[in-house]
Amino acid sequence: MGRSTIYEDCDDFFASEDGNHTAQRAKRGGLILRSPDGDEFILAEIDDFDREIELTRRNKELMKFLDERGKQTKTLKASEVREQLGVT
Questions:
Q1: Per-residue confidence of the chain (88 residues) as pLDDT tens digits?
Q2: Per-residue DSSP letters for 7-26?
Q3: What's the rounded Cα separation, in Å, for the pair 26 and 51?
Q4: Which residues contact 45 (CB under 8 A, 6 or more apart)?
Q5: Bridge-partner residues for 41, per DSSP?
Q6: Are 42 and 30 in contact (CB under 8 A)?
Q7: Rounded CA gap, 37 and 40, in Å?
């Protein structure tokens, strides 16, 4: 997950009334931010492990990958992987 600085100095943002209000709402369960173009983003507190799990489960691409990976029945020995990669 990438990071982006909203303001040059984040302290200025969180000291502002809008920034403080936004942060408090995000702490209570996250926010969905919608751009004028209709793109949606999630703002959530990082330390909220349950929320991180919820956000991860909403990642359709990741869930599809994990579902497909979970259906795999064939395994390889470490020696076979090293041979395929040309590593000895």
A1: 555 555 556 666 677 777 778 778 777 777 888 888 888 888 777 776 877 788 888 889 989 999 998 998 888 899 999 999 998 7
A2: SSSHHHHHHSHHHHHHHHHH
A3: 11
A4: 26, 27, 30, 51
A5: 33
A6: yes
A7: 9
Beta-strand pair 31-34/40-43: antiparallel
Q: Name the CA dihedral angle for 34, 38, 41, 43, rounded to a multiple of 10 degrees.
A: 0
Instruction: Quote the tokens at residue 22.
Output: 């936004």
DSSP 17: H
Q: What is the pTM of this model?
A: 0.35
